[in-house]
Amino acid sequence: MMEQSKKRYRVLILSGAGLSAESGLKTFRDHDGLWENHNVMEVCSVDGFRRDPKLVANFYDKRREELKNAEPNSAHLELAKLKREFPDDIAIVTQNVDDLLERAGCDEVIHLHGTLVDLRCESCGEIFRVGYESQNSKECPKCHRDYIRHNVVMFGESAPKYQILDEINRYAEYFIVIGSSGQVLPIGLMASFHEHSIINNLYPENGVDDYFKKAIHKPATEAIKDISMEIREFLLTT
Predict the structure, then answer these.
(1) What residue ranges define each of the domains in the chain, with the CATH number in brackets?
(2) pLDDT tens, 19-54?
(3) Side by side, which strands form the sheet with 148-152?
(4) Catalytic amino acids?
(5) Strand, coil or helix: 136
(6) Helix 74-85, helix 220-237: angle, nearest 10
(7) Residue 173's closest CA among 115, 217, 110, 230?
(8) DSSP code, position 108
(9) Which residue, 129, 133, 123, is CA-closest to 57?
(10) Per residue in 200-213, pLDDT tens?
(11) Are 72 and 104 in contact (CB under 8 A)?
(12) How far is CA 234 from each of CA 106, 122, 228, rounded to the nearest angstrom?
């Protein structure tokens, strides 16, 4: 099978926290800099992890427990349907660390920041599934050591999947953003290279929306109807 980074997709769909918000998952970073009442830098940075690894482990244990009770919404389901219809034309890339796209039936999801449902061994680098369980008492199935951590990219460490995103964006003809404001990725700059582009967020974003050909300010579950129609028309007529 051809590597994901080597495929030349016509449509790039990049999603952020707004996609999963309607499934009851809190956005990664609220306006007050908190995530579930924790300072983001305490639980999502290399420095915070070094200071208090137990706090960070407990935090991600709770996020997995929360995720277990969440369900994919209609936007997840429609994206999965589009991917099944046009598997070689559409790339699904997400900043989210939940597995709701996969549970909606979406294959080949590229997670830029890792996943909650996996753990990583700091001894040998093995990544293995933990599902929605606590990481407490878990050990690496490969080297059998217990030096493990969450498989979510933290501030202060590299995100290798960004290289895949850059390559997909270089060849894509249509760039679509759902539920991302551009705080982490330069989505405005990315959109400026495309003749066809759509951004969907609840509210207008100064300095971002202007780079896109179309902006839809609605919840993702409402905007997905228009987005899906635009994608199908593009792929079937061009």
Answers:
(1) 1-25+72-113+158-238 (3.40.50.1220), 38-69+114-152 (3.30.1600.10)
(2) 999 999 976 655 555 677 778 899 999 999 999 999
(3) 127-129, 114-121, 148-152
(4) 113
(5) coil
(6) 10
(7) 230
(8) S
(9) 133
(10) 999 998 889 999 99
(11) yes
(12) 20, 44, 10
- For residue 133, the SS3 value is coil
Q: Which helix (H) or strand (E) holds 115?
A: strand 114-121
DSSP reduced 3-state for 162: helix
Q: What single-letter DSSP state applies at residue 8?
A: -
3-state secondary structure of 127: strand
Contact present, 159 and 133 (Cβ < 8 Å)? no
CB 119 within 8 A of CB 41: no
Calculate the CA 189 to chain-centre distance.
19
Other Cβ atoms within 10 Å of 182 Cβ, number:
20
Q: Mapping DSSP to helix (H, G, I), strand (E, B) and coil, where does residue 129 land? A: strand
Residue type at 62? K
CA 206: distance to chain centroid? 22
Write down the pTM of the prediction.
Answer: 0.93
Looking up tokens 């780079």, which residue turns up? 211
Looking at residue 143, its amino acid is: C
Alpha helices in 69-194 (DSSP H): 74-85, 100-103, 161-171, 187-191
The pLDDT > 70 percentage for the chain reads 94
Kind of pairing between the strands at 174-178 and 11-15: parallel
Name, in order, each residue with C-beta under 8 angstroms of 229's C-beta and a sequence gap of 6 or more: none
Q: Tell which residue, 8, 7, 11, has the closest CA to residue 230.
A: 11
